[in-house]
Design brief:
By secondary structure, the protein is an alpha/beta fold. The chain is 48% helix and 12% strand. It is built from 7 helices and 5 strands.
Length: 159
Amino acid sequence: MTAIEAFVNVLQCFPEATLNIVETNGWGNQYGIVTRRARQHGKRIRLHRNLGDADVRSIVREGAALLIPSLGEGYGLPVVEALALGTPVIASNRAPLSDFVRFKGVRLVDPTDMEGLTRAMRDLADPACIRLYRSDIQICRLPIGWRRWAQNLWCFLTT
């Protein structure tokens, strides 16, 4: 909920901004709560459910940033996917996402800090800031791509 509240604050400066929320299996009973909260803000918050990989990639590629304020992320694959697509990331400062601090294009925030999330989202709603983050990502683009990275991770975990 903190991310939605932070986005509502961003709308004060950037009224045309849109938050796309992609539902995942890990939400449990939170989906109903998120749905009710999002509907209060009409077209500015869009909920997506049961999307295929191509649709998710399109949303991430076209977005100003990937917001992943996770309290318990697995291996950080969404961060790697976003960076491979050239999209900046606002991620939780908790492990394992905090391991991405060395990557350009990643901004870490406390996922429970609404003011911090608001600042990060407001910064990345600014076109000049987005260009700067995207240019940094182009410089440090992952040399093997997200698919190969995921394959390497899988091999590591299963051997």
